[in-house]
Structures are given as structure tokens and as C-alpha cells.
Amino acid sequence: MTDVANTQSAASEPSPTADEGAVKAVMRKPSWIRVKAPTSKEYAETRALMRSKSLHTVCEEAACPNIGECWKNRHATVMILGDICTRACRFCNVKTGKPGMVDAGEPAHVAEAVVSMGLAHVVITSVDRDDLDDGGAEHFAKVIKAVREASPSTTIEVLTPDFRGKDGALEICAHAQPDVFNHNLETVPRLYNAIRPSARYFGSLRVLEKAKELEPEIFTKSGIMVGLGEAKEEVFQVMDDLRAANVDFLTIGQYLQPTPKHVEVSRYVTPEEFDEYRKVARAKGFLLVSATPLTRSSYHADRDFAELKAARAAKLAKKA
Fold this sequence. Notes:
Number of strands: 10
Largest sheet: 8 strands, mixed
Distance between the termini: 43 Å
Number of helices: 12
Oligomer: single chain
Structural class: alpha/beta
Strand order of the largest sheet: 1-2-5-6-7-8-9-10
């Protein structure tokens, strides 16, 4: 699936059976991970709008723990190009298989949803579509164009796949000039074969680096999960690699196991450790860092975009 952050509902879990109790007790989610199930009127309205436009959201497909909060605030991350991914990453809850045909009406439907929700900032992601000649890049560009025409003041963030190096694909997407270009590394290089076997770490780094080269004014962004067995020093190295690729914004969140078939959580990283990661990353030069247990790629993306612009302006003012 497109490098969309991992998620599992963090709401209250069912009680384990007697046989499962001893094992479950060891890895029971800590208090800082648990959230309430979504029940708001705005949540129901957002869900109904997505259904009426035949749109998918990564919020639902990846079972994001923040869906209740985000949809209450009418912020949803649209997932284009269908709901079936051509890859099978071991952290991701999105269905894997043979995708259907691309919906030619989807760009217009996304734009209509943006207008209906009155979004100041929208995040658009996708499944991986390795079956398409351009990996879906042209479709991304069409969605960006449709949103721009329907709601010129809305800023646009894309969370893309790596396009598997398909000739010209990255150029098509970058030249459509989203305000933020996001591509997640997901984890440290050592864990790629186990967690993200269909992708390559340095290939993903190059996607980010090249996007910035193609459109220097675009903010670039990437995210990783922790709690998969990585060492702290490996996380610091990822930070250095991302800064070498001129990435502006880093997100770090806790991996949560979507189903028993997915890779298990190695450990729950404490809020104090997340705070350390945030401080180290800021010291390394990122314009913005979001590092909390519930951080996901598009969590608070609208607020973060405003902070990104302010951070860039402050940096430029210092150089003047």
C-alpha cells in the first residue's frame, strides 16, 4: 500500500480469554495510546459525505486511532485510486489484491468533498498502483488540479507511493505543485525486508530528494513508525538521511498492530522518548517535527501546514 502509516484502533480492547490473558497482559496498550470510539454528529456526517461521493479514506481503511477527533473537526484524508493495494506491507491494514479500474470521476468527487467540508487544507493519499504505467501519478495531478479549480484557497498535501521508479511519474506529481509532498520511509533500513519488502529505503529517500529538486518551494515531509524493533541510533540515522535529502517535516508515531496477521508490536515507546526524538530532530534542522504516540502522517495536517509556513518565514528572516 502507499506508504500510509500503520494503524489500529486504539479504543478499548475486548477482554482476553483466560488462555490469552498472560500474553495479552504483557503487550496491553498503555493509557497514552487508548482513545474513545467515534460517536460525534460530525463523524457521522463526514462518513455519509464520503459514501455519497464514492470516496475512500485512509482514516477508515487503515483504522486510524485518530478518526474520531479528526472527523469531528471535519478533517479527512482522501485515499484515491481505489481501496485495493498492489503491495502487502506487513504493517498496513489496507486490502491487498488486484485493483479495479481507475475512476475517472474521482478528481471531481474529491473537489466536491473539499468544498462541502470547507477544508482549508486537504491531504490526498493513495494505494500503491504498480499495475499502472505511471503508478497513478497522472491521477494525482488531476485530483490536485480539480481541487485547485474548485477551491483555490485550499492548500493541498499529497502522501504518495514511490511510483516504483516509473519513468516520469514523480515529475508529473511534483509539477502539479502540491503545497506539501509527503512520502513515508515508515521504518529504519534494517527492518525493510521484514516490514516493507516491496520498497527500498534509499529509493524512497531519493523520491523525497528529487521532489525537492523538481519543485524547491514545495514543503517535503516524511514519517516513520517506532515500536517495530528499531534502535534509537537507527532512528537518529534516519533523521540525518532525511535532512541530507532536504526534507522539511518529520512525523514519528507508535506502530499499532492492525490484525494478528500483521507484524507484532515490539514495544510501546513512552511519551518521554517521543519528546526526546522531537528535540533531537529539531536540533538536526527540520522545520517542523511531530513526534507523539498517536502521530500519523496527516494528523493535524492543517495546523501543521500553518506552522511550516511560519517556520520557513522565520528561517528566511534570520538569513536576511
